[in-house]
Amino acid sequence: MKIVPIFQSRRGFLCGLLVAALLLSPTLALAKKQKKTAEVKTQMVVTVVPHSRDAAQIPMIPKSSVSVEEDGKPTQMVDWKPLAASDGTQLVILIDDSLQVWASLYFKDINNFISQLPASTQVALGYMQYGSTVIAAGFTADHGKIMKVIHIPSEPAGSNASPYFCLSDLVHHWPAGKPAAVRQVLMVTDGIDRYFEGSHYDPEDPYVLAAIRDAQKQRVIVSSIYFRDSGDVGTSFMGGNYLRDVADGTGGKMYYAKIGNPITFTPFLKDYKNRLADTFLLTFLAHGSGLQNVKVLSGEQGSKLESPARVVVGQKILKPSVTTQRKTKGIVDRKLSLQGNVRQGNA
Fold this sequence. Notes:
Layout: H1 10-36, E1 40-50, E2 57-59, E3 66-70, E4 73-75, E5 77-82, E6 89-96, H2 107-115, E7 121-129, E8 132-140, H3 143-149, H4 163-172, E9 182-189, H5 206-217, E10 220-226, H6 233-250, E11 254-255, H7 266-277, E12 279-286, E13 291-298, E14 303-306, E15 310-312, E16 331-333
Helix pairs in contact: 2-3, 4-5, 5-6
């Protein structure tokens, strides 16, 4: 009788496949489970915003009241602590150089704001010109240097091309400076995207979305002061909404006057100065990869948390050995006054 090897018969071949599948299935299931449950420590900067800035005391939000969601699903929070002055902040003030000349009347407010910043805040000054950001002064703790180089807008109307080209350019060519935990941008512009087709607000404007994505990838928080420079109500509405989208997407804030331009920037800058100080470092376990949607929630009354809408999984802001020195008591006393380098090119 001739013996046929098991894999040389059809039945034997099928049996072999079945045995292999049974042997491999636990391994594949385990690998799939491990891939699904892979957790990566990820850090992000969160701003604590009281519901009323006139409050003399701001409730300290304990770790127990903070929760994080990734793509709509709860995820584990690892650490929550206030950022200390020693952790550092980098702030770029980005001004549209095509604003009308009289916009410079507000620059004294900006100078006053800069003069009040702590030495731990490095400040740089940039101007929007033809789709690029031209750095007039790089990061420095000598704030007087920045105040000396702020100049009257000197470019023709519309020469900013698109504020969002300029923002992306700045993010991609972030000025050199001492490493800092927080990266901030404060823009002064009308927010109108003159390169995108149409004269009305479109939440899918590709240049705005690209600028938001670029800022999120580089952990840059973008705020703005809306300054109506020209155009009708429709275009003004468009510019303001784009600036709001950028702020919401990166964890910043858009400041504006309800009618026309503000009498002064001072109230805006006063609030913004507080925002720079009220920042926390959140560490959580992320499960995805690349840019992921996140939402930070708090059950604490009297304040809210503002953060980027997306973060890069695995993003590290501070090394584990770095500790903060600011004390976290039940509340943080807030003494508020109740009165109201140079680069040029196309994007």
